[in-house]
């Protein structure tokens, strides 16, 4: 399958199918633009395949926009992940694979979806660092990090996070004295969760603190992390980062 994308001067996106066959699209999916582009491709593909019902359409989303908005936070506010999921569902893909979604709600809302595990990236990091203690930063991350720790036979220290006026307040439930720690989570936005956690781990005697996140957004506060986190490991699902402080695994 081959296609062509054109952009009009007013921002409109249009797609043209050049060669037929199964559709296998891989996108960051971290912008509405990305979603509209695949909607155009899928619409053109459907029109071309109206007579060939056995062709298959698969979508891979590396960093789903709105994945954190997995509930209606306040009355009268929009439930954004539901809006995004409804739009993706309207395209009727046969399979939608999503890399390390923030919560299972993405999978529940998006039809025919399945999770792509981040295990291989954590495993590479864990081995490169020489088997550090894994740290899960909050209840949301605990389940998947616990599963990964079991598979790696790694020690796991859970920590709890509550946000007070937006700022994370941390409590660590384990002994990290004299140990190297690897915090494992799905995404970093400003990174304050990890800055506070790394400071707390070091205050409790951790010798080094590393961070793994699948979706390295770092929309703000990136430089500050260098004060408490020794090195960051991530994928390029959200963006490419050129900084020796960061090791990125290519997924795109
Ligand atoms: O880089 P930061 O700005 O610190 O944000 C990163 C944290 O935020 C997200 O969790 P969130 O608090 O949204 O989890 P929730 O679903 O439990 O509210 C994410 O899973 C990280 O733990």
TrEMBL record:
GO BP terms in the entry: 5-phosphoribose 1-diphosphate biosynthetic process; purine nucleotide biosynthetic process
Keyword Transcription part of the UniProt annotation: no
Keyword Transferase (UniProt): yes
UniProtKB keywords: Kinase, Transferase
Molecular function, one GO term: kinase activity
GO cellular component terms given for this protein: cytoplasm; ribose phosphate diphosphokinase complex
CDD domains with a match to the protein in the record: PRTases_typeI
Pfam families assigned to the protein according to its UniProt record, in alphabetical order: Pribosyl_synth (PF14572)
InterPro entries recorded: PRTase-like, PRTase_dom, Rib-P_diPkinase
PANTHER family on file: RIBOSE-PHOSPHATE DIPHOSPHOKINASE FAMILY MEMBER (PTHR10210), RIBOSE-PHOSPHATE PYROPHOSPHOKINASE 1, CHLOROPLASTIC (PTHR10210:SF41)
Protein name: Ribose-phosphate pyrophosphokinase
């Amino acid at each position: 399958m081959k296609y062509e994308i054109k952009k009009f001067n007013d921002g409109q996106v249009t797609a043209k199918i050049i060669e037929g066959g199964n559709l296998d699209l891989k996108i960051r999916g971290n912008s509405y633009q990305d979603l509209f582009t695949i909607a155009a491709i899928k619409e053109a593909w459907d029109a071309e395949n109206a007579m060939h019902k056995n062709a298959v359409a698969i979508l891979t989303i590396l960093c789903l926009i709105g994945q954190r908005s997995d509930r209606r936070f306040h009355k009268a506010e929009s439930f954004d992940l539901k809006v995004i999921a409804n739009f993706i569902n309207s395209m009727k893909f046969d399979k939608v694979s999503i890399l390390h979604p923030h919560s299972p709600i993405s999978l529940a809302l998006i039809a025919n979806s399945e999770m792509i595990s981040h295990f291989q990236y954590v495993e590479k990091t864990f081995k490169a660092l020489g088997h550090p203690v894994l740290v899960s930063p909050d209840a949301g991350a605990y389940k998947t990090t616990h599963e990964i720790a079991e598979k790696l036979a790694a020690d796991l220290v859970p920590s709890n996070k509550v946000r007070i006026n937006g700022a994370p307040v941390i409590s660590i439930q384990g002994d990290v004295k004299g140990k190297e720690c690897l915090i494992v989570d799905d995404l970093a936005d400003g990174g304050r969760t990890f800055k506070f956690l790394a400071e707390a781990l070091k205050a409790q005697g951790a010798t080094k603190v590393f961070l793994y996140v699948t979706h390295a957004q770092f929309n703000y506060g990136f430089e500050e992390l260098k004060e408490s986190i020794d090195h960051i490991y991530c994928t390029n699902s959200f963006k490419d980062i050129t900084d020796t402080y960061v090791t990125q695994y290519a997924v795109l």
